[in-house]
Amino acid sequence: MRLSVVIVNWNSRADLLVCLESLARQTHKDLEIVVVDNGSTDGSVEAVRERHPHCVVLAEGENLGFAEGCNRGIAESHGEWIALLNNDTVADRRWAERLVAAAESAPPTCGMLQSVLLFMDRPTEINSTGIVLTAWGSGNDRREGERVEDLCEEEIFCPTAGACAYRREMLEQIKLPVGYFDRDHFMYFEDLDLGWRARLAGWSAMLVPDSIVLHKYQASAVRHGHRWMIVLSHRNRLRTLIKNASPGFFARTMPRTLEEIFRLIRFEGVRGLVPLARAVVESGRQRPAVTALQRRSRHGVEASWVGRGGRPIVGLRERVTRASAEGTDTAREHAT
Known about the structure:
alpha/beta; 2 domains; eleven-stranded mixed β-sheet; 46% helix; 13 strands; Spore Coat Polysaccharide Biosynthesis Protein SpsA, Chain A; single chain
């Protein structure tokens, strides 16, 4: 199976080259690599074209954001499954091989696969094994901060886009006028938004515990600034709720929403309400399109998944435990 890999980059030449080197070492060789560069000025495009001429490079003239960068990379790719990797990651040499094996054996209703993200500076500690839908309508990283042990193949709510794979058939089915990912998110919550929409459309997601990726973690957030990250996250959480949540769930999250609105006013003043109002209107326009995709009720998805980390799959523990331990050893090698 040919696996397409999409990487979005913005002024991260050194990290990007390390990531691409890890892909060059993959045991699975049938990879299509698409690098979407969001107007970098640090020589990223030139370096990729020189050192990795096999990569498809989309050199955009501006910073489109992570969401729209992924959209353009997906549109340019050709694989049956499309993997996304953050540019500040290092993939275990069998990362793609194990994703492809999981994709080939996945049931037809499975449209999302999650790799195990480990902290690059603490490679025995989990960064994420997917997203947990919280009671206040946010998305937490599953098992963040835990040790790498007792991982098993299991159903999760949805993956985090830092290291995952999506079935093309699913992406085409749930695509909205604003793209596969909602381009208006720019970054943050775009993966929860897409995953929630996919769940409503009847698709499922699986953790692939022996597919290992090391993550530098929040490199972009450091460059943009903490306040910028908070403002964008608050706005995008509300976007996600408006499109995907049931009325009852939306009402129950209002205390958190009001708290975040007050924080936005404190950060940006009353003028900060203008982009928030625009986000509300834009997301409201997308809700009917999400409703048209529904195969499961909004309440049913929420009742099944709010606060639940995952659902073990019986019969795979022995194989997965062995493969996970093997993958963790390899991850340690990458960190030294």
